[in-house]
UniProtKB/TrEMBL annotation:
Catalyzes the sequential NAD-dependent oxidations of L-histidinol to L-histidinaldehyde and then to L-histidine. Binds 1 zinc ion per subunit. It comes from Alloacidobacterium dinghuense. This is Histidinol dehydrogenase. It comes from the Bacteria. Keywords: Amino-acid biosynthesis, Histidine biosynthesis, Metal-binding, NAD, Oxidoreductase, Zinc. GO terms for biological process: L-histidine biosynthetic process. Belongs to the histidinol dehydrogenase family. It catalyses: L-histidinol + 2 NAD(+) + H2O = L-histidine + 2 NADH + 3 H(+). Its cofactor is Zn(2+). Its EC number is 1.1.1.23. InterPro entries: Ald_DH/histidinol_DH, Histidinol_DH_monofunct, Hstdl_DH. Substrate binds at T234, Q255, H258, H321, D351, E405, H410. Pathway: Amino-acid biosynthesis; L-histidine biosynthesis; L-histidine from 5-phospho-alpha-D-ribose 1-diphosphate: step 9/9.
Amino acid sequence: MKVLHTSGRNARRARAAIARLESRRTAVDERATPVARRIIDSVRKGGDAALRRYAVRLDGISQQLPLRISEDELKQAWRDASPAFRTAIQAAAKNIRRFAQRQMPKAWRFEQVPGLTVGQEVRPLESVGCYVPSGRYPLPSTMLMTVIPAQVAGVRRIVVVSPKPAAETLAVAGFLGIAEFYRIGGAQAVAALANGTESIPRVDKIVGPGNAYVTAAKKLVSFDCAIDMLAGPTEIVVTSENGDPTGIAADLVAQAEHDPDAVAVFITAKAALAERVRSEVDRLATKNPIAKKAIQSNGAIFVTDSVTESRALTNRLAPEHLTVDAESDLEWIRNAGSVFVGRYSAQPLGDYISGPNHTLPTSGWARTRGGLSVSDFLKVITVQTFQREGIQQLGPPAIVLAEAEGLLGHAEAIRVRGVDG
């Protein structure tokens, strides 16, 4: 893992590496977008037939295998799962559900002025599609993270798609009571969810992470169907002045093993700590080829001149996962998907079991949004109720504003209700 100092003789290399990390937002899309566009257009025009062709060609599914998985098969997969796996899933599901329940916004009302009550109602989306990756690794944890908040929100129709789903993924679907599960993936699954086919009705929103082609497809359909975010390859930043080198290195390698395109960064003002972390990363990544490749391509240790510079650089990178030393560090954090505090907060705990969602903004999107939450499955509807006293008080200034804009019909709609102005 390369160590780069932000000042001195090699500062130019550090600046170049930082610039490359900051520009990562579009690098994957440019490579995948043309392919994703062709697939989406094909599924829009060809429906089920095109979807089946891609499932056979890209996912290796037999021509005879039904794309929809029956509820009985899902329930049987849960029954066949090992007791240890079932216990772990139940523990994780409990924490994820409790966290999502705490996130639920409330309906409320208040009296703006005498005779005017305003407020909001909270309603779930009607349907969502949850994308569960099943490429290099099966990710049943992503099913928990996408489906459970939708259930807490009250979404009626929850559709799961996953290419060649592993037995563990099917088991979790059975545990969660999923009724609609399709063994499809990639851009073709996104196209089917966004536009519908003969056998798969479209959904209102697509959520969940995926590879470069899934991310590109979500971007392309985002005007046809709502999406959560463009979640690409995973990222980790650890910003520390007194952390444990072995623990820091272990978290960097753990996130890097997700994908050869994963980003792993350590930021510190202490050169000695940087060297110790570098040594530990090299040791731990030796027998982990995917992590080793990711760290070689997208890994860096930045040694800054000060704690202030370390903090500023962290916010510039807007990482998906961020580990810091202490609760007091939360005061300076502006951009991060999920924050882990202290030496015992191993990032993989957040991937599985602690409760906060692991579907998080990548590629710098943490500058503008947080991770997936129950709010992604809800809509807030505002409500306003005028009585005579309220319209008499607020009607005249509203008429003034309407006439200033030249909207005379607006003004008249207020006057006919007995308002002078």
